[in-house]
Amino acid sequence: MGIDWFPLWLSLRVAALSTLIGLGAGLWIAWLLAAREFRGKAVLSSLVTLPLVLPPTVLGYYLLVLLGRNSIIGSVWERIFGAPLVFTWQAAVVAAIVHSAPLLIESARAALESVDHSHERAARSLGASEWRVFWKVSLPLAWNSILAATALAFARSLGDFGVTIMLAGNIPGRTQTVAVAIYDAVESGQGATARILVLVISALALAVLSVANRVGRIDFGRAGG
Amino acid sequence: MIDARIRKSFPGGKDSAPFTLDIEFKSSARTAVLFGPSGAGKTLTLDAIAGFVHPDEGRILVDDALLFDGAAGVRLPPQKRHCGYVFQNYALFPHMTLRENLAFAAEGLPRLERRRRVGEMLDLFLLADLAGRRPHELSGGQKQRCSIARALIAEPKLLLLDEPARGLDPQLRSALYAALADVRTKFKPQILLVTHDLDECFELGDEMFILDGGRLVQSGAPLDILQRPAAPSVAQLLGRGNILSAEILTLDPARNTSRLRCACGDSHFEIAGQYMPGHLIGDRISLYVRPEQLQALPRAADTAAPALELVRVSERPDGVRLHFRGEITVQMERAAYEGVKHNKDWVVRFRPETLIVLE
Questions:
Q1: I need a labelling partner for B135 at 20 to 30 A (CA). Which of A46, A201, A204, B203 fits?
Q2: 8 Å CB contact between B315 and B345
């Protein structure tokens, strides 16, 4: 029995890429929310949380409107890369980011907020720039929680179904991720394929969770610091 | 030199009362102490000077540098204030070794100079053997030395210390005082220290500022304040004096005497005092007298002194305290007390020159 492993590789690639991008942008947003006071902070905070509560199809719809061929972003993309963004594997990455980044941002924000502020104040009084305070003090002290959240975000990207199918579609060999492939397999009566993919994804998610749990617990004897 | 006028209001929330810090002080003492009970606004004052908190209005000058001016819109960030801050919890970076903690503060120096400075400070603060350890592997005293060294390495103009002796046992406390005395001789910065421990004010302070409820209630040399508290509230904060409410019965400027009737619980007694310029017969005043300036004697020894009822006797490291009805406390040397400890009827002798009128 031949199983098509493409959806698994695609999912892993999409999850890795979306987690990386989500971490880069998410850290910055998390820092803004945790450490800065500015107008529109409440709005930004709500916008970040919104994807966690909206149905995936609704998110997918918004993204189609935002990134579709007739949208500004979509047409700019098409001009640069010569092909539309929607219904490509890159669109699956966007879908996975929207699906997983809110979790990452919320966790990173909580982690940055829970850093004992006297450490940051001490760093400032010693003359360290805000940039250095963040990289040398805040981030290292929050790093374990952020890493754990990153692992969770990776697992979440791996499992996105709704947003992906709306934005990237279900094109076997091109945009069909594992979650979509499982749905497809069940629909078309390929029970064995579905079963194997389900088991692989479950094992992977479990492994990621245990890693997340482990890094989340390490600290530097912080209480004594 | 520090010159600060700080006003900052907190409206108060669900579980906090409104609070206003409104103080103005100026000091060129080598070590100035902010003294007061918890919640007086001491740490807030330090935070405002360090730049962690922005006052609503005011002006903060350290030496000749303007750190904050509400009216002119000057708000230097903490990075540019050159104020070293030693936090109550030391705030050593837990993910760095001691050496790295110090090196973090020396970042502005050229590389070779940085290494030399860090090594020098590690030696000076007896941390050289511990340089590779992380903060959680250190004792409280070691962490504190590291925290002071780290603050000094950036060569601050002003060193701010928040309750440095809190949580240290007496031995470490005296080690800290020795270290700070060392800092005063070897380093430039003026020290501004927050404490609610009066002994510490005397141990370290050249000048002391008493804060209560967000206001400055008295300032001066610690000994002067102890001898002449300006108000009953100050005397209460100092916590070691007797405060009596009295009525002036007679005043005689020629002989420099007065006669005072003191209320003592529900009874009264009369004592002799000095002449009180600016007061009239019939005025009600508060008198302050320290326990060691009173004398407790058997009644037979001085029939003119007021008889008081002894309630209890407590042992102190520096002698014995006799507590009389009406909250009058007398401190005696242990040897003197041993001689009269079976006595039943007591009088307390007030010497006129030791009575201080609180305004």
A1: B203
A2: no
- How are beta strands B257-264 and B346-349 bridged, if at all? unpaired
Contacts of A129 in chain B (CB under 8 A): 79
- Judged by phi (left if over 0) then psi (alpha if -120 to 50, else beta), residue B213 lies in left
Q: Give, in words, the CATH class of B2-228.
A: alpha beta
How would residue B182 be classed by pLDDT, with cut points 50, 70 and 90? confident
Neighboring chain A residues of B91 at a CB cutoff of 8 Å? 116, 118-119, 121-122, 225
**Are B165 and B117 contacting, i.e. CB atoms less than 8 angstroms apart?**
no
List of residues 6+ apart from B286 with CB closer than 8 A: B232, B243, B244, B245, B246, B357, B358
Q: Which domains does chain A have, with CATH numbers?
A: 6-219 (1.10.3720.10)
Q: Where are the domains of chain B?
A: 2-228, 240-351
Q: Min CA distance, A211 vs chain B (Å)?
A: 21
User: Based on the number of CB atoms within 10 Å of its own CB, is B155 exposed (0-12), middle (13-18) or buried (19 or more)?
Assistant: middle
Residue type, B189: P
Hey, is B353 helix, strand or coil?
Answer: helix
Give residue B37's Cα distance to chain centre: 9
pLDDT in tens, B337-356: 988 888 888 999 999 998 98
Q: Do A118 and B89 touch (CB under 8 A)?
A: yes
Q: Do A220 and B104 touch (CB under 8 A)?
A: no
Give the global pTM.
0.81
Region of B302 (left: φ > 0; alpha: ψ -120 to 50; beta: rest) is: beta
Q: What HEC string does B121-147 produce?
A: HHHHCCCHHHCCCCHHHCCHHHHHHHH
- The verdict on a CB contact (< 8 Å) between B92 and A225 is yes
Chain A residue closest in CA terms to B100: A136
Q: Which of B77, B94, B105 sits opposite A225 (nearest CB)?
A: B94
Name the closest residue on chain B to residue A221, using Cα atoms.
B136
Q: Are strands B57-62 and B207-212 parallel, antiparallel or unpaired?
A: unpaired
Cα A99 to its chain centre, rounded Å, is 6
Closest CB to B135 among A128, A140, A225: A225
- Chain B: residue whose CA lies nearest to A124: B79
> Helix or strand or coil: residue B159?
strand
Quick count: other Cβ atoms within 10 Å of Cβ B216?
A: 19
Over residues B122-143, the pLDDT tens digits come to 998 989 999 999 999 998 889 9
Is the pLDDT reported for residue A1 higher than 80?
Answer: no
**DSSP-based three-state secondary structure for A18:** helix
Q: Which residues of B touch A124 (CB under 8 A)?
A: 51-52, 77-79
